[in-house]
Amino acid sequence: MRTAGFFLLFALLALFSPATCISQSPFPDSAPLSATGTVLLSADGSPVREALVELFHVDSDSAMSTLTDDNGQFRFAQLPAAIYRITVTAPACETFQLTASLPASAPLILRLRRSAYHVTPRNDSVVSVQELAMSRKATRAFEKGTRLLLKGDVAASLPYFRTVIELAPSFYRPYHNLGLALYRLDQLDAAAQDFQKSIQLTKGGFAPSLLGLAMVLYRRADFLQAESLIRRGLLVAPDSAVGKYCLGLVQFSLGHISEAERSALEALRLDPHQADALVLLARIHERQHNPSAVLTDAQTYLKRDPHGAFHSDALDLLHRAQQDISRTSASLN
Length: 333
Hints:
By secondary structure, the protein is α+β, with helices and mostly antiparallel strands. The chain has helices at 5-16, 124-132, 136-151, 154-167, 172-184, 188-202, 207-219, 223-236, 241-253, 257-270, 276-287, 291-304, 311-332; strands at 32-41, 52-57, 63-67, 73-80, 82-89, 96-102, 108-112.
């Protein structure tokens, strides 16, 4: 299967990476409005401060994000009405994901569950203060680099992330984004080092960096180690559709076809808009000699994401399935 780098890059980046509100992202559609909400702990209803709330525009691949205030509240201004994927991450909490139409008729109430996996993803009394105390120069560089990476100008983003690392070496997010950029440029050794640095700074509590490093290992055909890292990431973020998709890729490569099928289906259940999982599912069904299912998977992908990264793969799968069905039909006549 063609490498998952293109999808994974933007899935990890758009859903998890920007630490500050990228207000200049080019959102389409109607006149901009505002969306507000509150992030609470599900156990006791207490507000979660400095939770990262991120919006991913389903149709345009644009992203923006912000941090909650001391009362757990957040606000997105200048937000065009559309379908968004909402992701909320906070230390020691499971990742929250929701797809919804925004702006909503009432403020959003998003409830986070404490993670059952006892990691210390960030030391709030230290790291959050460092983030807030980042110089204006470092903040601008991080925003610029992230914006370039989201636009696909990968090489141009590199010096900005390196500037942030020089100015704020304890801030883990530029290491993660730099790893993503280097991964996209096929500089796998360098990407692995930056993902590892992010993992070190967060003590293994930032799932996207675990998944990013796992995909480096996947590209190197080190499938067992990749699977181990993905499972660590899923302990931190058990409802991560990206994590389930990555797990399915690795399981397929290991020949664990039934497990890969369950992971791909789970990825689609968690995020029906994750069309790339349909191509993985089509390959699984092809391996299972089920051309009718392959046909359905490929057609659904092409309908859902007609200009997607795996368009040619889906067409190849579709044509092979049609040929298999035709041969079977001819042999019965």
